[in-house]
Amino acid sequence: MDHNSPCLLGLYHLLDQKKKSFSLWMERDPLYMQQRF
After folding, report:
1. Whole-number Å distance between alpha carbons of 15 and 1
2. What phi and psi values does residue 4 have, to the nearest 5 degrees?
3. Which superkingdom (predicted)?
4. Where are the domains of the chain?
């Protein structure tokens, strides 16, 4: 494995956490999203 693997895994993990927290926020506050768009 190359030396970039841990960095890429950390980046993917961070993006996955952001996606999860965003989807949780969307489920928790759907009316807010409807008002915005």
Report:
1. 22
2. -85, -10
3. Eukaryota
4. 6-35
